[in-house]
Specification:
The chain is an alpha/beta fold. The protein has ten helices and 14 strands. Pfam families: ABC_tran.
């Protein structure tokens, strides 16, 4: 695939000396969804702001669709749709005028059919004549999304697009995202709902303290860094893990009715066979066993903790 966003050693240092981005390099392929994950203050919004021309990088280079974000700003920005974290809309303007005006800003001719399609996708069509100040917070968020889509961008930045909104909007948003992906639009997502990234992203990028820690295909990342947990339900509860099982580092449930055993599938052996034999030797009867895989959230939290150590 072709990289539609190409970031090379991008740095942003503010006048006060704070370095928000430190040598960030990232290639984003056309038509993929990449989730940019990181704690508050990690540099996610600064990176998006630099690529969208909201803030100027201190050094390094980046292109969008082959257009330099500094020397070819207008052409680069015309390819980008941005849904920012903050809701900044003209309160006395009507919804449909707000959306149409955004299309005009990019020099695109008015397209009533497209505007209607987008407003209907976001359940805004019935509110098209309403003034922005009359809308709920969730509806205002929908207007931001419509504004970002109406000039038909090829790259869409979603900076915490569903933070603090209702379940219905989140569902509508991801339905729209799936349609955009089918049309070949590249989507860069930041979110605190890591289950969303796990559900829709093709690749995961982790950023912390202004540096990219990792960029990897989601499934490969979860296979490589994820661990599995074997839960063992006991026939009879126990008060403590028998001393003969100490080497297995088992976790006993508060009610004493189950044990959890964590293991890594990348190792030479899981140790499960030996564990089951040891359980039998200790006189523990098994009622059921089940295996679960680490979630993306658990992997992410673990990486950030390691980086802070």
């Amino acid at each position: 695939m072709t990289a539609i966003v190409d970031v090379d050693n991008l740095t942003k240092t503010y006048d006060g000396g704070l370095t928000a981005l430190s040598g960030v390099s990232l290639r984003i392929e056309q038509g993929e969804i990449i989730a940019l994950l990181g704690p508050n203050g990690a540099g996610k919004t600064t990176l998006i702001s630099a690529l969208c021309g909201i803030t100027s990088p201190s050094s390094g280079r980046a292109t969008v669709g082959g257009h330099d974000i500094v020397t070819g700003y207008r052409k680069a920005r015309a390819m980008i749709g941005l849904v920012p974290q903050e809701v900044a809309l003209e309160p006395f303007e009507r919804v449909i005028n707000t959306v149409n005006f955004s299309r005009g800003l990019f020099g695109r001719r008015r397209d009533d059919a497209l505007t209607e399609k987008i407003l209907r996708q976001l359940s805004l069509w019935d509110k098209r004549r309403a003034r922005i100040r009359e809308l709920s917070g969730g509806m205002k968020r929908r207007v931001l999304i419509a504004k970002a889509l109406v000039h038909e961008p090829r790259v869409l930045f979603l900076d915490e697009p569903t933070a603090g909104v209702d379940v219905e909007l989140r569902r509508d948003m991801w339905r729209v995202v799936e349609g955009l992906r089918a049309d070949g639009v590249t989507i860069i997502l930041t979110t605190h709902y890591i289950e969303e990234a796990e559900a829709i992203a093709d690749r995961i990028a982790v950023i912390d303290k202004g540096r990219i820690l990792l960029v990897e295909e989601k499934t490969a990342l979860m296979t490589r860094l994820g661990r599995k947990t074997l839960r063992i339900d006991l026939r009879e509860p126990v008060e403590a893990v028998p001393a003969s099982l100490a080497d297995y580092d088992l976790e006993l449930a508060p009610d004493g009715r189950s044990l959890s055993y964590h293991y890594d599938t990348r190792g030479d052996g899981t140790g499960i066979t030996r564990l089951l034999q040891a359980l039998a030797a200790a006189g523990l009867g098994l009622r059921d066993i089940q295996t679960t895989q680490s979630s993306l959230e658990e992997i992410f939290v673990g990486m950030i903790r390691e980086g802070a150590a």
